[in-house]
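hiii, so i know i said id send this last week but things got crazy w the move. better late than never?? heres the sequnce for the chain we talked about at the cafe, plus the structure i predicted for it. fair warning i was half asleep when i ran it
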Amino acid sequence: MAKKIAVLVRDRQAEALRMSVGLTLADDEINVFVVDRKLESDEGIDLNVETLGDMDAKIFSNVPENKFEQMSTEEIARALVGYDVVLPY
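okay and structure toks below
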């Protein structure tokens, strides 16, 4: 049975996104939440964001500078209740 997995991205952005891409191989539902910080931009991060999009993972953020679907901190907190696993980075 597929699991619903949320990855919270804050401090170790490159590692969190790399790991999120790896999780897509298990055919689980992966959603990424970039919280409280602007997502850095470098070749690795940009490639992982693109790959997550290609793998139908959704990316959300509570920071308007991030060009992902916006959710408030409260909305993110309410959404996390519905996940089987929440991985904070």
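btw The mean pLDDT is 97. thought thatd interest u
miss u guys!!
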